[in-house]
Specification:
Blueprint (H helix, E strand, L loop, with lengths): L6 E6 L4 H13 L3 E6 L4 H7 L7 E5 L5 H9 L6 E3 L6 H10 L7 H8 L1 H10 L7 E4 L17 E5 L9 E3 L2 H14 L5 E5 L4 E10 L3 E3 L2 E6 L7 E7 L4 H14 L3 E10 L5 E7 L7 H9 L3 H9 L15 E5 L7 E5 L4 E5 L2 E7 L6 E2 L10 E7 L2 H13 L4 E3 L1
């Protein structure tokens, strides 16, 4: 029986579906008392999001970007049994806080390496694991300095600690580089940038869960992107298993980075010669409702399994995941700025043996600019079944029957 007095601290910025619909309900099912630590500006949104969770979840304010404040806030409250975060931005702070209390913790150096894209490239190159041409631009560094280097045009420019393809853009020459760097810096004052070789090929992901010793591979996704120069994820198809050579090479790179505890979402390009090249490593669960789909598709307590690893429980040698499932996610996108004036509501459908879920991500009446990122998503369609063609047909027919209208 679960101990009702065990306490989980969740370190967060804004509320996310992964936490609200995944990890918090799982924590409640495990009998954990939950304290969410978040910055003052996000506390009210968290409390609204968790009303359905009941009194098991409390929300406290804390400057969570500073690991010293996290440690102090926990020390003044109840003793922790696990300190966990699914935020891209807070993995290092969470690792340091968990380690301070002697709890299962990610190696803070691995958390930093995976978040800092320039450091990841340097570390992998030094380890002989995956050499990619890359240059780091400090916040005050003139990108024109790269003109003197042998730049392998086209290249990708992105924030060093960015997330969700925000401000990630393909540039063809020095003039485009200067223009896009100026635009990113105007939106992100003080941000360091990375300029790196463009890796051509199919974009895939690898999803893993580990307990620090054992690492389980759950399959991955093949991702379809928008047309260049932006990298917006428009569709993902589940891949039950990558080629063993590809998976082995990726696991070697994760080991070199120090990845091992909890969930990890790895993005890579599969080149024409069959070689995988890392794009980035996100040391947390895949988002945008893909993790919710994984739990349904694989038939495993995905979120509970991740939390058990952070509680120090060893993972079983076999998670008992189904291997016959097929799935697809589509993200209807805004194609212009304006106000959403018509859109379908949330739906749950059975179409033969296909289970289809639609969730709106923007309310009617909301006005948004065009971001060229996943902030342009109007909703998410996720479908699971056992035959990929039937899954694809169900999703395509559903989207064709819907109507989204944006008024300038």
């Amino acid at each position: 029986m679960p101990n009702p007095h065990r306490r989980l601290y969740v370190i967060a910025l804004n509320p996310t579906d992964s936490v609200t619909e995944g990890f918090l309900p799982a924590a409640v099912r495990l009998g954990l008392d939950v304290t969410v630590l978040t910055e003052p500006g996000y506390a009210a949104a968290h409390r609204r999001a968790y009303e359905a969770q009941g009194p098991q979840v409390e929300v406290l304010e804390c400057e969570v970007r500073d690991f010293r404040e996290v440690i102090g806030r926990i020390s003044r409250h109840h003793a922790p049994d696990a300190v966990f975060s699914n935020s891209d931005h807070l993995q290092t702070q969470t690792a340091l806080a968990a380690g301070y209390f002697g709890l299962p913790a990610k190696d803070w150096r691995a958390a930093l390496r995976t978040k800092n894209k320039a450091q990841m490239r340097r570390h992998l190159a030094a380890a002989g694991a995956d050499a990619v041409w890359s240059a780091e631009l400090a916040p005050d560094q003139d990108p024109a300095a790269l003109a003197a280097r042998d730049v392998p045009w086209p290249v990708v420019v992105k924030p060093r600690e960015g997330v969700a393809s925000e401000d990630v853009v393909l540039v063809a020459d020095t003039a485009e580089l200067l223009r896009h760097c100026a635009g990113i810096r105007a939106r992100r004052p003080g941000a360091a940038l990375v300029v790196e070789e463009f890796l051509e090929g199919e974009l895939h992901t690898l999803e893993t869960i580990g307990d620090g010793d054992l690492l389980h591979v759950l399959g991955g996704f093949r991702t379809e992107l928008s047309d260049p120069p932006y990298f917006i994820e428009e569709r993902l198809d589940f891949v039950p298993a990558h080629d063993p050579g590809v998976t082995g090479a990726l696991l070697d790179r994760l080991k070199a980075l120090g990845v091992g505890l909890g969930a990890c979402h790895t993005e890579f390009v599969l080149q024409a010669d069959g070689r995988p090249r890392l794009i980035e490593v996100n040391y947390r669960a895949i988002g945008d409702q893909c993790d919710l789909l994984l739990a349904e598709l694989l038939g495993i307590p995905y979120f509970e399994t991740v939390l058990r690893a952070h509680l120090g429980e060893p993972l079983p040698a076999d998670l008992g995941a189904r291997t016959d499932g097929r799935a697809r996610l589509d993200y209807p996108l805004a194609d212009r700025p304006g106000t959403l004036t018509a859109a379908p509501g949330a739906q749950e459908l059975r179409i033969g043996d296909v289970r289809l879920t639609y969730r709106p991500l923007r309310d009617i009446g909301e006005r948004h600019e065009l971001h060229r990122t996943n902030r342009d998503f109007l909703g998410v369609v996720r479908a699971t079944g056992t035959d990929q063609e039937r899954v694809n047909r169900a999703v395509a027919n559903f989207i064709a029957a819907q109507h989204w209208e944006i008024t300038p």
